[in-house]
Amino acid sequence: MARIAGVDLPENKRADIGLTAIYGIGRSNVVKIIKDAKVEASKRIKDLTEKEVNSLQKCVERFKVEGDLRQEVEQNIKRLEEIGSYRGLRHRKGLPVRGQRTRSNARTKRGKRKTVGTVRKEIATKIGGPTVGGGKPA
């Protein structure tokens, strides 16, 4: 089992795909890593030799990955919140940060839809609340 940067890589995947299981390593970085380590991209992770795994590990160590990267991202968000920037406020409220519309979409950030209903006049007079039209209860 190949373990790089504290992550067990999926054994049945190709080396170029399996390396993306590491947080902070995407497809473009994988190309650089595999080229520097001189490993075949089409080789399965379970078929890699110990020498190849060690060379991949040395190449991955040059990148900021896993815990260090997560910590840096978290600090960046905390800094934005502390200085009171617009982006920091959006992070704090749990809303989209990069200008996306929230009227009709943004369900991933805002959560499940909550239906907001109206109160009929008969019920509103009993509880003494406002009616549908916004006027006083009859």
TrEMBL record:
Region (Disordered): 92-117
GO cellular component: cytosol; small ribosomal subunit
Entry-linked Pfam families: Ribosomal_S13
One Gene Ontology molecular-function label: rRNA binding
Residue spans of biased composition, Basic residues class: 92-115
Keyword S-adenosyl-L-methionine belongs to the record: no
Keywords: Ribonucleoprotein, Ribosomal protein, RNA-binding, rRNA-binding, tRNA-binding
Tagged with keyword Ribonucleoprotein: yes
Coiled-coil residue windows: none
UniProt cross-references to Gene3D superfamilies, sorted A to Z: 1.10.8.50, 30s ribosomal protein s13, domain 2
GO BP annotations, alphabetical order: translation
Family that this chain belongs to: Belongs to the universal ribosomal protein uS13 family.
Chain's role: Located at the top of the head of the 30S subunit, it contacts several helices of the 16S rRNA. In the 70S ribosome it contacts the 23S rRNA (bridge B1a) and protein L5 of the 50S subunit (bridge B1b), connecting the 2 subunits; these bridges are implicated in subunit movement. Contacts the tRNAs in the A and P-sites.
Classification via NCBIfam families: uS13_bact
Assembly behavior: Part of the 30S ribosomal subunit. Forms a loose heterodimer with protein S19. Forms two bridges to the 50S subunit in the 70S ribosome.
Name the record gives this protein: Small ribosomal subunit protein uS13
Species: Candidatus Daviesbacteria bacterium RIFCSPHIGHO2_02_FULL_39_12
Phylogenetic lineage: Bacteria, Candidatus Daviesiibacteriota
